[in-house]
Predict the 3D structure of the following.
Amino acid sequence: MQTKWGSHGDYQVIAFAPASVQEMFDLTIEAFNYAEKYRVPAFLLSDAEVGHMRGKLTIPESAKIVNRKEKGVKRSDEAYDVPDELVPPFAVFGKGHKTMITGMTHAADSRIEPEDPEVHAELVKRLNDKVLLNRKDINRWETTGPGSKTMIISYGAASLGAMEVAAQDERIGLLRLKSLWPFPEEPVREVARDCERILVSEMNLGQLYGDIKRAALEAGCKDVRLLSKIGGDPPTPSEFRHELKAMGAI
Amino acid sequence: MELFEFYRKDRWPHVFCPGCGNGTVMNCFYRAFSELDLPLDKTAFVGGIGCSSRIPLYINSDALHTTHGRAIAFATGLKLAKPELKVVVFTGDGDLGAIGGNHFINGCRRNVDMTVICINNNIYGMTGGQASITTPHDFLSTTTPLGNREYPFDLAEIAVAAGANYVARWTTRQVHELTKSIKTALQKKGFAFVEVVTQCPTNFGRRNKMADPTQLLDWFKESMVRREKARAAAVDHVDLNLAGQITVGEFVDRKRESYGELIGVVKDG
């Protein structure tokens, strides 16, 4: 599976997909905060469309800042405690913790154990679980026209045309995902439960489509289709309407 | 400082092969560090990937074992975030010069405050003896079974050209000079680079008719030339070993502004 996912082993990432200037600003703060909170890299999926965009930006007086939890110096092995939320506090360098940070398979006390399957399983499961089990805390989305019979699910620049369609046509709703990973299972299922058909729009050949379709079918929506557009231009409102007409939605 | 105050006894035994030069470098470093009486808890050790990059994990202080080639990049971040710490990097020729070559050059150019000990064994030892960027011309390795057609990099000269404040190269034969240079490097502001040409009997010597570590040390002795006596014509000189030489000595000792001074980093510890 390394050939498909780009690296070996299992891991989870946190990724945000802004679709406006304001979101680019707000989600940048969120990305830093989540990286500190869960001690994983957080990705901000900017693209050329958002990068070149001009728009209104409101800069708040102050921003909420999450600092990573830091370990005190109570016991020498305290740095290796794993709390319930699976994110151990950060043992800061220079405070006498004698911390060992390594990318290799290691036990809770940093012993390198590359050939111990149990140590590896425990470590990698925890690293995955700390993101997966905290999914509800991380996911961000915006719903326009909830309860509509037809819902578009999209994100980033691919959702720009859909926003216009959903604003003008009350038969059409839009679930705009602001975070993509960990996969936003709950909002997709909630939308799929109440609607008859879903149009997924992406500016690729359908990279999130498979996951969305799986979640939607499981939640009971039977008609899930893909509007895929590649080449760099976001799908236009008329392209959305054309596809929706073909689905019998309008 | 006692030996096992400095090293983590619970991590013993180490991974190094019998006859490896890493132990010599560790001893020289321990001696230099102890003689300077530096605070261990205010020193952070960084390594990349490779045999030599494992050394930080044996030292009884904060250690950062990074991804391959990125030791200098991680160490730069660490130094900027924690300017009150002394940052020491242990790395090898493959990690520093090949995979992390760009980080190395720019670390020197920025003159980031850190001591970098590069243990150059002329080979990718840990992974089975593939030719590295410092494998001398015509020497054998698993990937150059007919002899290395390429010419090697000269890490120390690159560090000089790129702007490091202190650059020295010794072999594991010259323990006194090496210890002295490590002491100088540890006290230096800016990028201090000490390259140690080291024997790897398992994966370098064995394939080049020098399976006994003492043969490699004899080879160092025969090929060693002090820098001031080395061929003057820089154009001819690519080192290790176009001219069949291992140039040793202090290459440069200067006082360029360090990166911390240039960008105005304030120590808060």
Observations:
- Strands of chain A lie at 14-16, 42-44, 100-102, 141-144, 150-155, 172-177, 179-181, 197-202, 223-228.
- The longest strand of chain A covers residues 150-155.
- Chain A touches chain B at residues 92-104, 111-112 (CB under 8 Å).
